[in-house]
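User: Let's play a game. I give you a shape written as tokens, and you guess the letters that built it. Ready? Here's round one.
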């Protein structure tokens, strides 16, 4: 059976991908910040699933936790990074911009690094990052979001 880890599985594209991969008989590792939403998703999936409550902006914890999830699943074939955050930020409040950068750049980079090291060692596997149209269109009220999604591309 094929195995996938989906980062950002509690809503949006990540949640729908979890449902789709489960329907296609994948074991699914679900990662997200909101444990109650992970629980609800686990209960509706058709295949074996694993859950990990995690905020990817906490990079050291992310590295250790994702590595452990890969071990708990006895390996994976695919890692999808669908997590992200962003704010409409008219005032360009730095704390909002920093939260976006910490999640969308540093968190993404930590997971991509783990995935690539694992797949190189395994000599197989796929890594998918899901950016946004904002990476090429941009917006004056969400600069960190636009730049961080361009970073992913």
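Assistant: Ready! My guess for every position:
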């Amino acid at each position: 059976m094929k195995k996938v880890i989906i980062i950002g599985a509690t809503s949006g594209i990540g949640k729908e991908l979890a449902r789709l991969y489960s329907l296609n008989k994948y074991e699914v590792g679900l990662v997200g910040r909101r444990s109650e939403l992970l629980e609800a998703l686990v209960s509706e999936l058709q295949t074996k699933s694993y859950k990990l409550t995690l905020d990817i902006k906490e990079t050291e914890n992310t590295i250790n936790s994702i590595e452990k999830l890969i071990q708990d699943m006895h390996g994976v074939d695919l890692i999808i990074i669908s997590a992200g955050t962003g704010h409409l930020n008219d005032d360009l409040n730095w704390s909002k911009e920093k939260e976006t950068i910490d999640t969308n750049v540093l968190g993404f980079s930590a997971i991509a690094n783990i995935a690539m090291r694992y797949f190189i060692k395994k000599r197989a596997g796929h890594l998918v990052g899901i950016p946004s149209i904002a990476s090429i269109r941009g917006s004056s009220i969400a600069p960190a979001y636009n730049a961080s999604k361009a970073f992913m591309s």
